[in-house]
Write a structure and sequence with these properties.
The structure holds two protein chains of two kinds. By secondary structure, chain A is of the alpha/beta class. In chain A, 43% of the residues lie in helices and 16% in strands. In chain A, helix 4 crosses helix 5. Chain A is globular and about 50 Å long. Chain B has one domain: Alpha-Beta Barrel (TIM Barrel). In chain B, 40% of the residues lie in helices and 14% in strands. Chain B is built from nine helices and ten strands. The longest helix of chain B is centred in the middle third of the chain and has 22 residues. Classes of the chains: A alpha/beta, B alpha/beta.
Chain lengths: 300, 298
């Protein structure tokens, strides 16, 4: 099982006053022992030339660095959100995001990733809009499928959460309910273009145990976002920094004979770390990954 | 400046847990260990007849591993001798603390943190609490001097029972800490342990407290938090500004050790991952120590 982590936070770390960038992130991740990297094409990484006309030259540079370091790109994350509310202040974003999603899919396929997480649209309150959101997302994903197939990559649906503004706590939105995830995936009915990425941390925020979600999703599961939290906030911390029961997670992944990769999305632990300590944190994260992969294998 | 961490989280996995903890801490590269003598560690033979033999066993392990004991933490909370809560413990807390002081001295620690008595709300009882604690600490001083160790006063907090947030308790205000230490007036027996995390919980920046305490600081509890809960996690997992802390420690020419009390970053790790967690903690300490040294003389 490939152990991977995201380029996001490493790429943000200052190196001589400038952000280090994805290629440097790839070097750091490889040096820490990871087999693969998850190409972050969100947030600050969007300042890199992932969307320009000459982007394939930039991607070639990343590919070359990865090859030199003996590491591959297994997964990626597209820009998000996939749509904002229909308000004048969001018009420019809404007019451009679809094009960015297409380019991100092409980028990730070019670099060799097996899947790219594309967030479902969840721009309106979930409760009462379940059918509307499903219809919108079926349109979105079906329209992106040809791009994904051409790029040789699958689009991964991710379980998402929302915030109740009155009660001030996290609640379900698109695909958080694993039964809804299964329904959407089965409705799309195109395993060549789609897979499921289970975000383990998101499940507990929405009052489910990750192992329950794993068992419901079963063989549809093609990718993971591995991170820990306190069941209250989306901390994206390394496992064992929160209260998720990792033995249960590993047992469930073994039970469903999960065949995907073990990809960390735990850069919340790196957010405050100075550049000099990032290698130590990456090494620690990798050791955790090895431990958990061994646990999964021990349960098979 | 010695890099040290508490034995608390590392002692979880065996009956003679502290001995195992010393080995793990040494293997991770630390110069020293802070002997935990509270909580679950009290199940070890620190307070029973023959405890000197157990302490000597720990000392021998430390010597074999090339590590020293620089600091310790006595059982808490502290009570007055007539407090009925003493009955919840195997011996009156004063006796347990006295034994802990002797243990730590026997191990060679430079200081032992002893919590002040804070059995009533701080606000409105400042003078009463000072009187109670002056009596308490002065009674412990001869024990400390005989053991060749200093008692370290720590800045503490409490929770407002109605508003539910953290507020000052004894010595949280650095002015009060200075006043208490100066009133005790015995540098042979007493020093200050500044808990950096506790400072932020009570609405202060750690660097401001460091400057206010100045040369009185003899020890540290290094931990991070979110300014809301007493998280005791390692630096850079919270929001404390570590550059400011390092700069202030250099400014006051801090001469003590750099002792972590951040075991909540380790307590959930399975045994197999504890060495990796301790190594990360040590690297973090080495980085911060370098930052302090880089600010000295500037």
């Amino acid at each position: 099982m490939i152990i991977s982590t995201m380029t996001g936070a490493c790429g943000r770390i200052d190196a001589g006053g400038k952000p280090a960038g994805t290629a440097e992130a790839v070097r750091m991740i490889a040096k820490a022992g990871f087999d693969a990297f998850d190409l972050t094409i969100t947030g600050q990484a969007m300042r890199e030339p992932f969307f320009t006309d000459d982007r394939f030259e930039y991607l070639d540079g990343i590919k070359k660095t990865a090859k030199e370091c003996g590491i591959v790109c297994n997964q990626s994350h597209a820009p998000y959100p996939s749509l904002l509310r229909d308000e004048p202040r969001y018009k420019e974003y809404n007019d451009t995001i679809y094009g960015l999603l297409e380019k991100a899919i092409e980028d990730a396929g070019y670099v060799g990733a097996k899947s790219i997480v594309v967030h479902p649209i969840c721009h309106v309150p979930y409760r009462g809009n379940e059918k509307y959101l499903k219809d919108m997302n079926m349109d979105l994903y079906r329209s992106l499928a040809p791009t994904a197939k051409k790029a040789g990559i699958k689009i991964a649906l991710e379980n998402m959460f929302d915030w109740d503004p009155v009660r001030k706590h996290i609640i379900d939105t698109s695909c958080e309910d694993p039964y809804e995830m299964c329904d959407w995936f089965d409705t799309l009915a195109d395993e060549e273009a789609f897979t499921v990425c289970l975000d383990i941390g998101h499940t507990v925020l929405c009052r489910r145990e990750p192992d329950e979600a794993i068992r419901v999703i079963g063989k549809r599961l093609g990718a993971l976002h591995v991170h820990d939290n306190d069941y209250i906030s989306d901390r994206h911390a390394v496992p064992f920094a929160g209260i998720i029961n990792w033995d249960n997670v590993c047992r469930a992944l073994a039970e469903v004979d999960y065949k995907g990769d073990f990809t960390f999305e735990s850069d919340g632990s790196l957010g405050g770390v100075p550049g000099e300590l990032v290698p130590a944190w990456l090494g620690f994260t990798h050791e955790i990954g090895k431990y958990l992969v061994n646990k999964i294998n021990s349960f098979r | 400046m010695l890099l040290s961490t508490q034995t608390d989280a590392s002692r979880r996995f065996s009956q003679e847990g502290t001995i195992e903890a010393v080995k793990l801490i040494a293997a991770a590269g630390f110069d020293a260990f802070d002997l935990t003598q509270f909580g679950k560690a009290m199940e070890e033979p620190f307070f029973s007849p023959g405890r000197e033999e157990y302490i000597d066993k720990i000392k021998k392990t430390a010597e074999e591993c090339g590590i020293v004991c620089n600091q310790s933490h006595a059982p808490f909370p502290s009570f007055t001798k007539d407090d009925p809560k003493n009955a919840d413990y195997p011996a009156p807390m004063f006796d347990l603390v006295s034994m802990a002081i002797e243990n730590a001295g026997r191990l060679g620690a430079k200081c032992i943190v002893v919590h002040s008595i804070k059995h009533v709300a701080h606000r409105g009882n400042e003078k009463y609490l000072k009187d109670v604690n002056m009596e308490y600490f002065r009674a412990l001083a001869p024990v400390a001097k005989k053991a060749g160790i200093k008692i370290a006063l720590e800045n503490l907090f409490e929770r407002d029972p109605i508003r539910k947030y953290i507020v000052d308790a004894t010595c949280a205000d650095p002015a009060e800490m200075c006043d208490w230490l100066d009133t005790l007036g015995d540098d042979d027996a007493f020093t200050v342990c500044l808990d950096l995390g506790h400072a932020t919980l009570c609405g202060r920046e750690p660097d401001e407290v460091i400057r206010a305490l100045g040369g009185r600081i003899g020890a540290l509890h290094v931990q991070d938090n979110d300014y809301i809960g007493d998280r005791h996690t390692m630096p850079f997992t919270g929001i404390i500004k570590w550059e400011n802390v390092c700069r202030a420690l250099a400014e006051v020419d801090y001469k003590g050790d750099f002792t972590f009390e951040s075991d909540n970053s380790l307590t959930r790790l399975p045994y197999e991952l504890l060495p990796a967690g301790l190594r990360l903690l040590h690297e973090t300490g080495a980085y911060l120590r370098n930052r302090i040294e880089s600010y000295r003389g500037k």
